[in-house]
Amino acid sequence: MDRPAAAIPIIQVEHLAKDFMLGSQRVQALVDGNLVVWPGEFVAVMGPSGCGKSTLLNMIGGLDRPSGGRLRVDGRDVDGLDENALADYRRRYCGFVFQSFNLVPTMTARQNVEFPMVFAHIPPAQRRERAAALLRAVGLGDRIEHRPLELSGGEQQRVAIARALANRPRIILGDEPTGNLDSKTGVEVMRIMDGLNGRGHTLLVVTHDPRLAEYCHRVVHMEDGRMLREEPGGLTRPTVAWMQAA
Ligand SMILES: Nc1ncnc2c1ncn2[C@@H]1O[C@H](COP(=O)(O)OP(=O)(O)OP(=O)(O)O)[C@@H](O)[C@H]1O
Ligand SMILES: [Mg+2]
Q: Which residue's alpha carbon is at the smallest distance from atom 25 of ligand 1?
């Protein structure tokens, strides 16, 4: 992974807004999103259902476009990118982990992890090797040729995490990654995310699980499309930005 520059935030969200039109009705999913994430941070976003958490995450991940405000990643504007540039941004910077795993059921674990690498034009032999290494790294070395239905929920989410890492993204975005898992398996997934952060990945994770606060540097609370307040999490590991500032 490239070593990030310390002086600039990896994610910078200023007065970000997102409206959806439902017929003639305007839904303000995000009213005033403000967030700064530094390289190497592990940040959780919490808040009641419908407060705009997924909307925020989807815009940061380039899956959707804001209606207003500013979004910069690694010092570059993302809000104004055209479709091709946005797809390129997404591929290079963002790895996604969703609540419902979103694995392709007909593909094996390895093929699922290889999938994003196809779009990054990584040669087949290298894809296979990297996918197997990523699956081993999330503890699935003996499940590489299993299909999603032959895996437990926790194992499926670990495949999804390996897939999120496929193109070596700078940022891992999680939308309730433990939401469909039982309590013990949820903790296993949090530990894996903790391990990724320990290796320098920046993580921004939406969650309803208060236990995640113990694993992250900061918890940002949202309400009604805005940031309400933030508080420190239980994680004291220095971030890349702290180390470079020292
Ligand atoms: N595509 C859409 N069209 C219309 N309204 C939408 C759309 N996506 C989200 N919304 C609305 O925007 C608001 C914020 O939605 P969002 O999915 O960001 O909430 P959330 O905080 O992720 O909630 P949850 O915790 O339930 O996942 C909600 O009122 C939702 O109904
Ligand atoms: Mg959501």
A: 49
